[in-house]
Fold:
Amino acid sequence: MPKFAANLTMMFNELPFLDRFEAAAKAGFKYVEYLWPYEFPAAELKAKLDQFGLKQVLFNTAAGDISQGEWGLSAIPNREAEARRDIDQALEYALVLGCPTVHIMAAVVPEGESRQAYKQTFVENVRYASEKFKPHGINICLEALSPEVKPNYLLKSQFDTLEIVEWVDRDNVFVQLDYFHAQNVDGNLSRLTDRLRGKFCHIQIASVPNRHEPDEGEINYQYIFDKLDEMGYQGYVGCEYKPRGETVAGLGWFEKYK
Ligand SMILES: O=C(O)C(=O)[C@@H](O)CO
Ligand SMILES: [Mg+2]
Structure:
């Protein structure tokens, strides 16, 4: 049975962030993920996790200046110092939170810039992170984002991510397989999952096209979950969706997995 993690950035959004931990635990989740922890001291977040018996399973490196269109710095040439500062910060948080995996955000590539230079920079920064995280047993994952969500992001297809993972060539660096983006860009999800076997260490789910609960839309998630079980997937499945309405009211799909 998949180990579902509530994504506290998207779910339980009707509550202030720090109250979402309790709400997730009450709804039956044992695991949580969210985009960024950096607004709060790591110890405060860890206390919330412990208070409600939750395990944090994923968060991201900092996004940079979102108001300027940034979405990760780790692939931007000549900004390695900032990217590595963010990677070091993520490691400090991961150690306090006891988090097994960190998503290293790549970058948006401005029109006219060399994608190859961005890829090269990303590979070098991910190798830096790999070396830093390895002694602590922490995995790294890299994620493709569909253009309707993040136009011009360096990684669009799952095969863009796979290319970087294989180029980095380190045993703690994996694909973050978000089926919402994968369906938007690549499709053919069963074959894709087979193709990526052993290469992904974290999954995220949402319906397509509306990014809601995984009980509507064009993806048959029950089929995918059964397939992941058959494959022996041991990682987590992050529920990175925008609830149709109130979060708990939409959790009917989760009843049988509690
Ligand atoms: O948007 C997504 O999908 C994510 O997983 C974010 O963490 C990064 O954009
Ligand atoms: Mg995602």
